[in-house]
Structures are given as C-alpha cells and as structure tokens.
Amino acid sequence: MELTYANEEKPLGTAGSVKNAEEALKDDAFLVISGDALTDFDLTELIRFHKEKGALVTVCLTRVPNPLEFGITIVDEEGKVERFLEKPTWGQVFSDTVNTGIYVMEPEVFDYVDPDVPVDWSGDVFPQLMKEGKPVYGYVAEGYWEDVGTHESYVKAQADVLEGKVDVDIDGFEISPGVWVAEGAEVHPDAVLRGPLYIGDYAKVEAGAEIREHTVVGSNVVVKSGAFMHKSVVHDNVYVGPHSNLRGCVVGKNTDIMRAARIEDGAVIGDECLIGEESIVQGNVRVYPFKTIEAGAFVNTSVIWESRGQAHLFGARGVSGILNVEITPELAVRLAGAYATTLKKGSTVTTARDHSRGARALKRAVISALQASAIDVRDLENVPLPVARQQTARGSAGGIMIRTTPGVPDSVDIMFFDGQGADLSQGSQRKLDRVFARQEYRRAFPGEIGDLHFPASVFDSYTGSLLRNVDITGIAESGLKVVVDASNGSAGLVLPSLLGKLGVDSLTINPGLDESRPTETADMRRSGLVRLGEIVASSGAAFGVRFDPVGERLSLVDEKGRIIEDDRALLVMLDLIASERRSGRVALPVTTTRIAEQVAAYHGTQVEWTTTSPDDLTRVGGEEGTIFGGDGKGGFIVPEFSSVYDGTAAFVRLIGLVARTQLTLSQIDARIPRAHVLKRDLATPWAVKGLVMRRVVEAAGDRFVDTTDGVRVVETDGRWVMVLPDPAEAVTHLWAEGPDDASAQALLDEWAAVVDSAGR
C-alpha cells in the first residue's frame, strides 16, 4: 500500500482538511473515512451504490440507538438526502439514521470547498449542494459501526471485537473458545483465563493470575501472580503487579501498577504513570501521563487539576442536585473553574443567589474559584433572578446564579448566563461540559487573581431602567388597586420602590424574606393563590399577582378572585399586548395551544414557534420585531425591557395594559376560546429514543410534519400531536390538541401506542 500524507497545519474542518489533499484526489472518485470509528461496512457496495445513482456525493449512513453525538440524516425512498442536522438535542431528534463520516465523492465537490479556511461537510458543503439540487445520496449500510471517540465507546468496541460482533482479523491463536493469544506470549498453565479475551505478543501471565472476559492485554505486558483483570484494556509494556485488581479501566503504555493496587471501573491511566502499592484509583478518575500515585493513596479525583466528569452536567435548570450530596462546595469550585476557563482572563462575571443559606455558602465557593481563575467578580448578593440577568447584561462576560430548585427544598440549581444574561446556549453548555469533563481548568498567576466588588444601587438601577422602557402611561390616573404576593421571596426586595414610583394603589402580602422557605411546593403555591384570590375579591382590587420566590415567574388572579391558570394567563397577556401593538411577532414554544395563533392573527400579529428550550425563546425574544414571549408556565418576556423571563417586568406591563384598556381580566379571558391541550409522559429507554422518533416520522405518512422541536404531526382537520424526547430522563413527552378533550384524548392514545410499540 502506498501512503501519501497531507499535513493540516491549522484546523480546517472535515471538508477543509480533505481539500488540503486535493492534489492527490483530483483524478477520480475517492473515499473519505473518519479515523475514529471501527466498522466492517462493505465499502465496495457503497461505491457501487454511488456509481449506480450517479451521485456527486454519497453519505454512508447507519442506525444507532442514541443519535445525540452524531449528525442525523433523512433520505427519501430513492436514497436522496433531504435533510442534515449536526449533533442535535433530544428535542431535534427525528430519526436514528446518522452520518458515519464515510463518504464517496467526485472531484467536482472541491469546487464547493474554499482553500485554507475551516469548512465542514455537513454544515457547509452538503447544504449548498442540496440547495443547488446536486445529487447527494445516502446509503444505509448494514454491519458494525462504533464511534470510538469516548472512553465508554472505546471499551465497548474492544468488547465487540472479542465477541465477534465486528468482522476483524485478530492477530493471534484461539487456544480455546474466545481466548486469543498472540505469538511469543507466555501464559502459565495455572493462570485462569475466561474469555473472550486477548493477550498480546510477548506478554507474560504468571501462575495464579486471573484474566476475565473483555480484557485486552497489549504487547510485552507482565501480569504477576494473583493479579485480577476484568473488562480492562491494558496497552503495551505495562507491569501489572501481584494481587493488583483492574476492573473496566484503560491503562496507557509503559505504566507500572504496583502490588495490590486497585483501579476501578471507568478509570483511565495515562502513559508512563506509576500507581503505587495498595493505592486505589476510583471509578471514572483520569490520571494524566507521567503522574505518580503514592503508595496507599486513595484517589477519588483526577490527577491533573481536579474532579471527574459527569454524564449529564446540564439539566433543564442549569446544574442541579441535592445540596451537600450531589452539589457540594467542591463541585461548585470545579464548575466555576471550568466556566472561568471558557472566558478570557480579566473578564467580569456577575454572581447572585436566592435567600437560602445553602445558596449563600455555595456562592462564596464559586466566587473564590472565579477569582483564582483570573476573573473579576461583581457580587449582587441576594437579588431576584431577573435582576441578576439584567445586571449581568451590563458589561459582564457572563453570570452565575445559585438558587433553590423550584419545588425541591433540599436541592439547588447553579445557573450559568451568557453576556446577555440569558441561559447558556446548547453549544456553550457543551463547551463548559467538555472543559469540566477534561478537568483542564485555568489557574491564575498570583498577580492575576481577580477583584471582587459589590455594585451599589442595584435595585434602583433595575427599577429605573424598567420604568423607562415599559409603557406605564395611564397607570397613575387609572385609580387601579392591585394585590401583590411576594411569596416571602426576593421579589419583595424590588417591589417597595417600584410600586411607589408607579403611583398605583397596592397591597403587598408576604413581603419579608423567609430563609426557611426558599422555594415552595405545588400545594403551597396553590394555597397561596387561593388566599390571594380571597383578598382580591374582598378588597375590590382589579387583579392580583403572585411571584415565585426568585421573581422570575408570575401567576394571576382576576378581579373576582378566580385563579387564571398559567396557560390561560399566557393567552390573556397575548390578547392584551397584541390588541395594543397591532403588529409584530410573538415568541411561543411549539407546545402552546394553536388558539394563540388565532388570538395573535385577530390583532394583526404573528406567532413565531420556538423549541421548548428557554434559550431558544430568549433568542427570538431578543430579535427586532418581537413584542411578547411566554412559555405557558408563568414565564413572560417583555422584549422592550429584556429578552428573558421577568415576573416584575410582566407585572408592570400588565398594569399599564389594564389601565389603558379599562377591561377586566375576566372579560378578556371570556373572549378567548377555550383550548383543549392534553399531555402525557411515557417511559422510554435511552437505547430506543432514536428509534421511537423514526417510527413517529414513518407513522406520520403524508401528514404535515413539523420538526421545530421533536416531531409535531398535524392532521388534515387541524388536530395535532407532538412527540418530544426528554433530554435528561428516559421519558418521551406527548402533547395533543383537538376541538374538545375527547378528540385530543383519542389522538394522544393513538400516538402513545406508536411510541410504546417502538419502545418494546
């Protein structure tokens, strides 16, 4: 075989790197194969398909259980590619057919790749080819394919080779079923071998050693008496000392593992390390190359800087977990260090918390870590969440807010903001996740330690900006009376000065902070709303509002004391704002009732549907022409002031609207048609989530399919169902809407059966 190398001096992307080798590829069709995968696909059949179709590009595809880390590809019945989606979120998964990074291409494809700049096949070149109608085909290959870019997939690929799941020639002799021994290896007859396993050339296994299934022993490895190995991959020239114990780990070349050392499942030891006698390296720990673990050491954090990776770092509310069990000060320090590493030295980060003691303790740890990573800190202390977001957007590179998890008093959320005060995007979350998992944290030199200061007049700044940007005309003259429930939370810190400046007659209840109640359960919230309704009705107020404990969300009670449910409150606010503005765009998640579309259209506005992710709603909320946004769960966006959920801004906007329209909330509610949206959650194993979404698309047939988030199937009569995999749990969410509850229920039952059948 003749090999020609094209060196990539700087990163050029998946297409730019191939363009770099154009001189060697310009004469005929060529194969592009990513080097980090193990496969036994029939490439001859792939090339035959390419030539038969007369394709410019043929993408080799395969089906996988979890498509999150790959590019999803949809093809039609002829095999022509209809759509690509690179590394989707679960909400974007509509198939389990993924791009393997193997392509057959004609030299003309180079006309679409600029030289010496980063260019990506799936992100740049293929979309342009499809836009121009060029023949881009997808070939679904049969056989084995495993991306080996992670520790877990690497170990799995080794086991699959030993199990015969992939067609690979194993260099050695099968001395008993599944036990492969290479040339020159010495295995003592009294060693215990339980295959499938592999022992490399010139390795030596002493009497009393036990090597069990899915273990790979490299060249020149010495396994001493009494050593135990199970599901471990040991590279060349490693010494495995007597009575040592290796389970599910990977050990780099030229490493010495001394007597009675133990390395647990998921640990990775780099090249040329020394693991001392009777030391213990716990599961998922990384020991970087050239490190020494002292004899008797108990290593539960990685040996580079700190800590181990976590499978799902970000959830729906940032990084969440039980205080002092899952979320400890040590973890907070590592997270803050990872976040700081994603920012430039000398950047400013704004920090804030709710009124709980746990949040206060964790925030101090976060501040220390930020400063130690060359970050200046503006600490707001205890403020409402919208205030923290607004202050972050004033000159900070980002922000961190620590609060009690809504409805879960013993848990906390560590929330990370971008420079606009919005939640980190999916891409930024992945970046932070990678830094945290690799534990490559930046450390500042002594002269670079960051400053800490406490900005003054934060609440005056917030309320002043709010009153300048939100229309409050007519409020002072209206004589409106409102009842405001601060829920003993941080919203009560802003309300006194705000209500005074508005000139509205108000009664504030539960204004004081209660450290023992930093959040509330659903029952507590409900009883609070009932009590608020009683006060509104008896006092003759125009309406009542109730803030959540961090001032982010808002609940409404009408003038009769009746609770307006959150999904109806969204329609009421939409009706009021759209009727006043008469043009513009409204941002709503795709799970919202289509009655919202009718309300918006009636007043000359239009709906832009977003995914269910808050950062997507925030993105549209910040675009020019957006007049309102909401999630139907008490979260409202007032774009003239902010692109994030803000209960206080929504409250001020509502007072102005009611004052100017002279309509009551019950009158507005009564003129909006009733919605019939039902929801159901179904348990779905992670391994079949991609299959479920493909089955849903297939079952949709000729019906209209919307893949804004998950898959939404629209019936010809306007009824719709939406199927969305949960990003953090083994659950699939379903919504259905119809003209009445019975028809919505029937639709829900029909599609629940589709999801269930795929999950079995």
Automatic annotation (TrEMBL):
This is Mannose-1-phosphate guanylyltransferase/phosphomannomutase. Residues 313-440, 461-561, 569-669 form the Alpha-D-phosphohexomutase alpha/beta/alpha domain. Residues 194-296 form the Mannose-1-phosphate guanyltransferase C-terminal domain. Its EC number is 2.7.7.13, 5.4.2.8. Belongs to the transferase hexapeptide repeat family. Belongs to the phosphohexose mutase family. GO terms for molecular function: mannose-1-phosphate guanylyltransferase (GTP) activity; phosphomannomutase activity. GO terms for biological process: carbohydrate metabolic process. Residues 2-163 form the Nucleotidyl transferase domain. InterPro entries: A-D-PHexomutase_a/b/a-I (IPR005844), A-D-PHexomutase_a/b/a-I/II/III (IPR016055), A-D-PHexomutase_a/b/a-II (IPR005845), A-D-PHexomutase_a/b/a-III (IPR005846), A-D-PHexomutase_C_sf (IPR036900), GMPPB_C (IPR056729), Mannose-1P_guanyltransferase (IPR050486), NTP_transferase_dom (IPR005835). It holds the Pfam family PGM_PMM_III. Keywords: Isomerase, Nucleotidyltransferase, Phosphoprotein, Transferase. It comes from the Bacteria.
